[in-house]
Amino acid sequence: MILETPRLRLVPLGPEHARELWNVYSDPEVARYVGGDSLTPDSTREQTERWAQTWTDRGYGQSAVILRETGAFLGRIGLSVWPDWNETELGYALSRSSQGKGLAQEGCVAWIDWAGSNLPDDHLIAVINPLNLPSLRLAHRLGFTLSRHETVNDIEVGVHRLDLSR
């Protein structure tokens, strides 16, 4: 499945994107909120393999964000299920050079629209480190509100909720 917006193509993320995703993750300003020092080229490849399996198992998952005009890889946006909570998360990580241009919001809106029409869930979550102010601002613009706090990898994060209108 491919989602398209005026500026983006969102294609299933898989191992073929591992090198480009590692280029995004290798920026310390991006990595600090998506895994930090634990990220390596190998862990990124393994992560893309798991996400490819999610596409096979569920029919949706994380997407590679491709700029339609140039074909450039910008990062990832998509849906993941948190098994411990049985909730679906909208997650995103874009290269620093792609931030602040409305691209993440554009891709997230495409996924929210898809989820509202195709998932049985009545809501999505966004799991955000409270120090990640740009991500918090984006979640707020998308309509997410703080629902609760959880501890993930020894870090207290906010779990933000977006009700899916039917």
TrEMBL record:
Pfam families: Acetyltransf_3. The keyword Nucleotide-binding does not apply. Keywords: Transferase. Residues 8-166 form the N-acetyltransferase domain. The keyword Ubl conjugation does not apply. GO terms for molecular function: acyltransferase activity, transferring groups other than amino-acyl groups. It comes from the Bacteria. This is RimJ/RimL family protein N-acetyltransferase. It comes from Kribbella voronezhensis.
